[in-house]
Each structure stands twice: as C-alpha cells, then as structure tokens.
Amino acid sequence: MGDAFFNEAETGLMCAERHLERAGYARFLEIRLMIEGDQLQTVLPPREDLIGNVNLPALHGGVLGSLLDVTASLALVYHAVLTNPPRLVNIDVDYLRTGRVLQTFGAAEVVRMGRRAANVRARLWQDDPERPIAVARAQFLLPQRGV
After folding, report:
1. Domain-embedded: residue 99
2. What is the DSSP string of 49-110?
3. What's the domain range around 54?
4. What is the DSSP letter of 116?
5. Is 146 a member of any domain?
C-alpha cells in the first residue's frame, strides 16, 4: 500500500482543500481550514473591507451567510469524502449576535445523509464556541456516485 494509502480523514481533508480552492468567493474571503480533533473548522481572518455596518463596526451579514454556506459544504465534503462538491438546495440562517471585525471560526455537523441529499447544521463564533454569532441549517444535493 505504501504512499498510495490515505486514511479517511486525510482524504476528506484533501477533498475539502480542493473544493475550497475552486470556490472563488471563499478565496476572496481568504477562508482557511483547520482540524480540531475530528472536526473540520473554517477560519475567516478579520478584514476591514468586510464591514457591513460601519457604525458598530460589524461584519456584513452576507459575509457571515457565505461563511456558513462554505462551512457546511466543506464539512459535508470532509466527512463524506466527496470528490465533487454538493449542491446547495436551501439554507436558513439565524443571526444571533453582532459579528465584530475579529477572527471568525466556523464548524458544522452532518445531521443526516442519504444517497441523494444531506442535512447539515453550521455555526460561527468569535471568542467562545459556546456563544455563536450565527447558525444555519442547510440542505444539499449530493453528487451522484461515479460522476
């Protein structure tokens, strides 16, 4: 087996990194990946040009929604080891707190996965993982096997 052998986590990470490289808006946002235990996490660096409300200042809601979408999608790619990206069908976002111009982390869990579709729950936080700034429920259409 030698060098051709990859365990599932390495293969899932490789698929997630490849998916992230192909996602133009994710590249624009400069989203990075990291592994905490067996969980894939996204990291959005703080940037002044992502401010939506200059009076607070607060991150734009579209940036947070996009980060939730990318986080959910990448978690699905990572855990299911998908070589082709899933297609977003629907996403519901709840904005819970102001997203300050700080490093923002994201994580997601695959709630249910069938042969054709998957449900994923994602959350974002800044200082404390127990105090999310936004959460989402997303449904994805999975790529067909062998395609």
Report:
1. yes
2. GGEEETTTTEE-HHHHHHHHHHHHHHHHHHHHT-SS--EEEEEEEEE-S---SS-EEEEEEE
3. 2-141
4. S
5. no
Of 60, 139, 68, nearest in space to 100 by CA: 60
Terminus-to-terminus CA distance in the chain, angstroms? 26
Residues paired with residue 110 on neighbouring β-strands, in sequence order = 120
pTM exceeds cut of 0.70: yes
Structural domain includes residue 71: yes
User: Which three-class secondary structure state does DSSP give residue 134?
Assistant: strand
Size (the chain), residues = 147
Q: What is the pLDDT of residues 49-108, one digit of tens each?
A: 999 999 999 999 999 999 999 999 999 999 998 988 899 999 999 999 999 999 999 999
Identity of residue 57: P
* Token pair of 80 as six digits: 């299911």
